[in-house]
């Protein structure tokens, strides 16, 4: 049965409409058309249908290859970094940040990323801008090995300014139950391998913006000698996506656990995967944080411990694995272009120790 609605006779009166309230449906439709080519690049063979349906479809029969498949899910956003993208007029990089925040959380348990959805909230739909954001998300999905199966673009006039926007996303992955990674696998003597961050990633920008712009009055277009580029270019550097690198490690070595270094810093996130009775010790002398971390600390007179509990300090992902596997692990990551090093080890925990700690001073 079909539904027929009496449209009545149109009147040129001054009655309210969705458009007069600030919502442009036609602009939204154009944005969808512009983003289709980018979404298509993320498709996996399990994805059914195309963009524009009410729901994204993923063929779950693909999971029959698992004995006991466990689904892993995560959701996240990019935070106040989006405001820097708005100010700079650069919209095709924060999608990488979004995918990294979601999919690198999922891979921590050893799960293979499967698919992702996004939510883009804007004050006013600018089709080319929305398409650029989705382009970045799609490129990130390709780097993470997952499909972008759908999303939503919502126009909120009156709540957000015409140029304001925010992004969020949710993802799903799968891992075989007997290959689930985590604290129960970690043993005394395991090595702690650090993988270099590409910069600040997507955490701590409230502190960064407060220090650099409100206190120091720096500008985004200001050239910073230590960076070899402008401050804005440095701050907008996309978050590195480690998903496929981590999965490669699980195929070549006996990985016990991963830790995604996000809000809370290295020690707090590492402590989340260290079991009771054991202690992760990370030696600061094994690496030198990028100059941007020094700039934030020095400019804002931020104490080191405050920096370390807010920013990643140059480490984006940690792998914990048997000490005898370190050579293979480092070779695997090097082959994939990932800068990694042995940063510490797992020891017995003392009476007054927390799950993880940093020791020593950063290398010069």
From TrEMBL:
UniProt keywords, alphabetically: ATP-binding, Cytoplasm, Ligase, Nucleotide-binding, Purine biosynthesis
Residue ranges constituting the PurM-like N-terminal domain according to the UniProt record: 67-175
GO molecular function, one term: phosphoribosylformylglycinamidine cyclo-ligase activity
One annotated Gene Ontology cellular component of this protein: cytosol
Residues covered by the PurM-like C-terminal domain: 187-352
Superkingdom field: Bacteria
InterPro entries named in the record: PurM-like_C_dom, PurM-like_C_sf, PurM-like_N, PurM-like_N_sf, PurM_cligase
UniProt entry tagged with the keyword Ion transport: no
Pathway: Purine metabolism; IMP biosynthesis via de novo pathway; 5-amino-1-(5-phospho-D-ribosyl)imidazole from N(2)-formyl-N(1)-(5-phospho-D-ribosyl)glycinamide: step 2/2
UniProt-listed CDD domains: PurM
Descriptive protein name: Phosphoribosylformylglycinamidine cyclo-ligase
UniProt gene name: purM
